[in-house]
């Protein structure tokens, strides 16, 4: 996957960065840590500049999150009630939880969207409940872009620091991403087994 990412970046340049970051947030083909890290390495090699890299990467991240936001906004949280009531065990949530989440987003949605930008997996998933709670679009875009820009600066800077040793980035980030996903999956199984609905 790293070779594919390198080839797309070399072929598409900043547009390739945009497309990869957008896809990563819709259906993750490769972690953003690798995409922006390799972009930072390209900066170190003189093939890119850091500012356009961050701008295109942040635009791609935001575009990918808008997909999930609009999907959630289209269906709305009330349309979820039959699904939630039927599959509450596998969702580990009942309608009471959905209403609490909706109210919470109404009060603190911008901070949740911003904070989750720094968390693997959840940084994309959070866009769905934000849309369902009908968080104002402008607020969603601002806080998503702000969090993404900071995170992309960190990743691009890390890639720049590593210079030409891009294999080092893939060697550490790849297993870390897989490990985090395994832990999240195990925690989900534990929650399914131990979850009890509200009375």
Q: Can you characterise this structure?
A:
Pfam families: VTT_dom (PF09335). This is DedA family protein. It is a multi-pass membrane protein. Helix content is 80%, strand content 0%. By secondary structure, the protein is mostly helical. Helix 2 (14-26) packs antiparallel against helix 3 and helix 7 (95-116) crosses helix 10.
Topology diagram in text:
Blueprint: H1 2-12, H2 14-26, H3 32-44, H4 50-75, H5 81-86, H6 88-91, H7 95-116, H8 122-125, H9 127-132, H10 137-162, H11 166-194
Helix pairs in contact: 1-2, 1-3, 2-3, 2-4, 3-4, 3-10, 3-11, 4-10, 7-10
Key features of this structure:
about 200 residues, mainly alpha, about 80% helix, about 0% strand, membrane, transmembrane helix, transmembrane, cell membrane
- Give unreliable regions as ranges: none
The figure for the number of domains is: 1
Structural class: mainly alpha
Strand content: under 5%
Query: Sheet bearing the most strands, described?
Result: none
Tell me the Rg in angstroms.
Answer: 18 Å
Q: What is the H-and-E element order?
A: HHHHHHHHHHH
Please report the distance between the alpha carbons of the first and last residues. Answer: 47 Å
Q: What global shape is seen?
A: globular
Number of strands: 0
What would you say about this model in short?
The chain is mostly helical and 199 residues long. Helix content is 80%, strand content 0%.
